[in-house]
Every structure is written in structure tokens, then in C-alpha cells.
Write a structure and sequence with these properties.
Shape: elongated
Order of helices and strands: HHHHHHHHHHHHHHHHHHH
Largest sheet: none
Oligomer: single chain
Distance between the termini: 100 Å
Number of domains: 3
Length: about 280
């Protein structure tokens, strides 16, 4: 029966509403907790299909689907994990559910799926994380769960087709203080500079946005980014980008030139001080 509901709900929106109205949601949720992996997968996939209808999302969440979906994300078949990530993404489109999903332990499991899953799993996990991390407490959870490692790895691989998605998630996370040392520790600075040099226009703009947030409050990070050779490609972007991209690139150039200017001023101050001492010695 679960298999039939899975198929019936797959392509026809009208069936999704009928099945939900017929009272199928709670029995399907109980299947998600089944110890039979195939039954669990059918239950997860049927719930995902029903969640594709906006009218069903609230009913699915209020019927207790979140915790069983998180369990499937932890121990289900590869398909069950992917579909659980998608179902949680659908449910997270209701604001109140973002917090409930975050507090149910989904974030570390989605980070793990992002790191170890196949390409579809990585896409599903990154999209779910992007949605969930619009809530501040989930941003902190994601950074503490080690999300920067897979994000940096995916951004460094231009063949992965994951550069854009990873950059969007990283950019969203930069508003929490823990994110900045995490990016640096995972080797994110050279990767971001490479994206500014060799990425698509959109990827370049996202990388500049991340670097700008990284550099805003830290001379140490500005020096690191400048030493990585970022300035020429950021200057080039400031001349060829969208108006918003130009603005961010211009702001980043100002910040990157500051450590140099400060060093020059210190050098000049040191030399003038030395000269005046020499004059006294004469």
C-alpha cells in the first residue's frame, strides 16, 4: 500500500491532496519508523511527495513527521536519506518548522550527507541547509557541526557543479562570528581567491561577498587575503561586475589595501624616527 501511495502521489498534485484528506499522513509517518529499510524508504518518499503540495506541509509537520524524518536521515537507505533531506527542506519552508527541525538533530546529519553523499544527496543537503540556516541558531549549529570543511572542498572542485550552492550556504553563514575562523581553518581563503580568479561571474561575486565579510573586522584576515594575491582579480571584478558586485569589490579593495598602507605608514614613521635619532647622534 505504501508503494502504491508513493506512486500515486508522485506525479499528480490532485492525488496528493486526496491522499492527505483520506487520513494517510499519520500511517505513512509511522512507516518512516519501520525497522524494514524498504518500508521506511516507501514511507519517507510518500511523505516527501505529499509535502510537494503546499496545503499538506503544515499537516505533515503537526502530525509528528519531523523526528522520524531525522531518524531516516541518520540510518535510512541512500534514497531514504536523500528524500528525507528533501522532505525536511519542504517542511522548513514554514518558518516555525526551521527551529523545530534544527532542534531535532537534523543539521549535523545534513552536514554529514553534504560531505559523504552522492551528487544528488549533496544537492539536497545543501538546499535544505540553506533553507534551515536562515534561522540564526541553525547557522551556529551548522558551523559547530563542521559544515565549512565540505563547503570549502566543494567550492574548490569546479567540476562538482556545487560551487554556486556551496557559496550561497557559506555566504549565509558568515553573519555568525564562529563562521570566520572556521572558513580560515579549513583552508577557505585560497579557495575563495581562486573562485574570484576563475569562477563564473556569479561565483566571483559570491566569493567577494564572503571575503568582504571575512575581512571587515580583521586585519589578520585582510593580510591573509592580500598575500593570497586577491587584489588584481578583485580590481578586475570591480570594473566588470553588476552594480552590487562592483560595490562589494570596491569595499573589499579598500580593506585589502589598508594593511599595506598601515605598514607603509609604520615604515615611514620608523624611518623618520630613525633619521631624527641619527640627527641627534650627529
Amino acid at each position: 500500500a505504501a508503494m502504491e501511495i508513493r506512486l500515486l502521489s508522485k506525479d499528480k498534485p490532485e492525488n496528493r491532496i486526496k491522499i492527505a484528506k483520506a487520513g494517510a499522513i499519520k500511517p505513512l509517518i509511522s512507516l518512516i519508523s519501520s525497522s524494514d529499510p524498504q518500508l521506511q524508504e516507501h514511507g519517507v518518499t510518500a511523505v516527501l511527495n505529499l509535502s510537494l503540495c503546499d496545503e499538506n506541509k503544515e499537516l505533515i509537520a503537526s502530525s509528528g513527521a519531523i523526528k522520524p524524518l531525522v531518524r531516516a536521515l541518520k540510518s535510512g537507505t541512500p534514497t531514504a536519506k536523500e528524500n528525507a533531506a528533501c522532505a525536511l527542506l519542504r517542511l522548513s519552508q514554514i518558518e516555525d518548522n526551521k527551529i523545530a527541525i534544527g532542534r531535532s538533530g537534523a543539521i549535523p546529519l545534513l552536514v554529514n550527507l553534504l560531505e559523504t553523499g552522492g551528487i544528488r544527496a549533496k544537492k539536497d543537503a545543501s538546499t535544505a541547509l540553506y533553507s534551515l540556516c536562515s534561522a540564526k541558531e541553525n547557522k551556529t549549529r551548522a558551523v559547530q557541526s563542521g559544515i565549512m570543511k565540505p563547503l570549502v572542498e566543494l567550492m574548490s572542485d569546479f567540476e562538482s557543479n556545487m560551487v554556486d550552492k556551496s557559496a550561497f550556504v557559506m555566504n549565509l553563514l558568515m553573519s555568525v562570528p564562529e563562521s570566520k575562523p572556521a572558513v580560515v581553518e579549513e583552508g577557505g581563503v585560497p579557495v575563495l581567491v581562486e573562485v574570484v580568479e576563475a569562477g563564473t561571474q556569479r561565483q566571483k561575486e559570491m566569493a567577494v561577498s564572503i571575503l568582504l565579510q571575512l575581512c571587515e573586522e580583521s586585519v589578520v584576515y585582510r593580510t591573509m587575503v592580500a598575500r593570497e594575491g586577491a587584489i588584481p582579480s578583485v580590481v578586475a571584478l570591480s570594473q566588470s561586475s553588476t552594480s552590487r558586485g562592483k560595490q562589494k569589490a570596491g569595499a573589499l579593495i579598500e580593506l585589502l589595501r589598508q594593511p599595506r598602507q598601515q605598514q607603509q605608514q609604520q615604515q615611514q614613521h620608523f624611518e623618520s624616527h630613525k633619521n631624527s635619532r641619527d640627527d641627534i647622534c650627529d
